[in-house]
Design goal:
Blueprint lengths: L8 H17 L4 E5 L10 H7 L22 E5 L5 E4 L12 E4 L3 H11 L6 E5 L6 H10 L4 E4 L1 H9 L3 H24 L6 H14 L2 E12 L5 E3 L17 E10 L2 E10 L6 H19 L7 H14 L12 E4 L3 E5 L13 E10 L2 E11 L4 E3 L9
Helix pairs in contact: 6-7, 8-9
Length: about 400
């Protein structure tokens, strides 16, 4: 999952430099950065962002002294001094922008050794990614290093990662193109008689051909009206056995990643060639909300203003803003990035941010789901997702 050479080692080193400067400005003597890898696609971002490393070894229960904290690469980034990367798997050194690399199956003692060698007694260390490190592991680190003051510091990389470089934008464009092609193929394949799993197989095959991964696929179908029916499963999200039927609505919320960078798209349609007026109304309401939010995206606007603009369009269409997700979207990059498009968010948009604007709606059992990806430009925004919008 390491990012291809289109993102140069010099760019990774510049990221480290910015993180050091932000850490020093926040009063830290060093950053201790942790990611969770091991085959997951949830929380690998910070180490990949700084060190271009992903550990493919699974996260398994500790069995010390043989191994501990497998699947969790870590990095010590002193404000003054060279960084050290602690890994549990082999690295391609010519692709890693860090000179000091410590490899160990028993990761915890290795981490403690690195921290002790850095002479951080009595110093303040910012922890980035504490939610990815098992509580038991962190307690052991604290016990071995009682004089180090560990404080949360997620906001440092959270802010740096929001603005994408030209190389990152190029990868995100390609990721969005791959995701758009996959959801397009899935929507085209979704016809009466086919199951959610069969539709999922089409998407997975399309992604695999491009070296991309599926993250998740919220998929459902059903009928509205006086006796509404909704068909879906939660684990996995595509396991419903009931085949699609003419007259149903159908939706896909597809997310995945390419070279570590995410894509996230949603589309809806009717099964068969005769969509009903209530189905179209739901489909159009989700589109209106997203397009209303996108129209408000420009440098200097806040994330909250974007959310309020989208929800205003949704309410005007006669739909409630209440749903399982209270936002209108989020940043995207090596994960779900800030800012979050929620009504009270004051985060100011800047050129180089990449945002996903989304909304799922429901009324009388009819569901509409729509999501687009946009790049914030100096004058507004540019849509980079490309899947067909309307199939009615």
């Amino acid at each position: 999952m390491a990012v291809t050479p289109s993102i140069t080692l010099a760019e990774f080193e510049a990221r480290q430099k910015r993180a050091r400067a932000a850490a020093e400005a926040a009063g830290f003597d060093a950053l201790f950065v942790v990611s969770r890898c091991g085959g997951t696609v949830d929380r690998y971002a910070n180490i990949l962002y700084l060190a271009n490393f992903y550990s493919a070894f699974p996260f398994i229960p500790d069995h010390q002294p043989d191994w501990s904290v497998r699947g969790h690469p870590m990095m010590l980034l002193p404000v003054h001094g060279a960084p050290t990367l602690i890994v549990d798997a082999s690295v391609k050194k010519d692709e890693i922008p860090v000179e000091n690399i410590v490899k160990a199956d028993d990761v915890l003692p290795a981490v403690v050794g690195v921290l002790k060698a850095a002479r951080l007694e009595g110093k303040r260390v910012g922890v980035v990614g504490a939610d990815t490190l098992p509580w038991s592991a962190f307690r052991k680190i604290e016990k071995e290093l009682p004089s180090i003051r560990f404080d949360p510091a997620d906001e440092i990389l959270e802010k740096i990662r929001t603005i994408k470089s030209p190389a990152e934008i190029a990868v995100l464009r390609r990721a969005s193109e791959i995701g758009s092609d996959a959801i397009e193929a899935m929507m085209e394949f979704a016809e009466a008689g086919r199951t959610h799993g069969e539709v999922m197989g089409v998407g997975m095959a399309a992604l695999a051909r491009e070296g991309a991964l599926m993250y998740n696929n919220f998929m459902s179908s059903g009928r509205g009206g006086n006796d509404p029916v909704m068909i879906y499963t939660e684990f996995p999200t595509f396991a419903a056995k009931e085949p699609l039927e003419d007259g149903q609505w159908f939706q896909i919320g597809l997310s995945g990643l390419y070279q570590g960078y995410y894509f996230d798209h949603s589309r809806s349609k009717a099964i068969g060639d005769k969509p009903t007026a209530p189905q179209i109304e739901a489909f159009e309401a989700s589109i209106a909300a997203v397009e209303g939010g996108i129209a408000a995206i420009r440098p200097g606007a806040t994330a909250g203003e974007v959310a309020r603009a989208g929800f205003k369009r949704l309410i005007e269409a006669g739909y409630s803003p209440e749903s399982d997700f209270s936002g209108l979207g989020h940043g995207i990059g090596l994960g779900w990035d800030s800012p979050w498009l929620v009504v009270d968010e004051t985060w100011v948009l800047e050129p180089g941010m990449v945002l996903c604007v989304e909304r799922s709606v429901e009324k009388h059992g009819h569901v509409g789901d729509f999501e687009e990806t946009v790049l914030v430009t100096p004058t507004g925004c540019e849509k980079i997702s490309k899947a067909r919008i309307r199939r009615w």
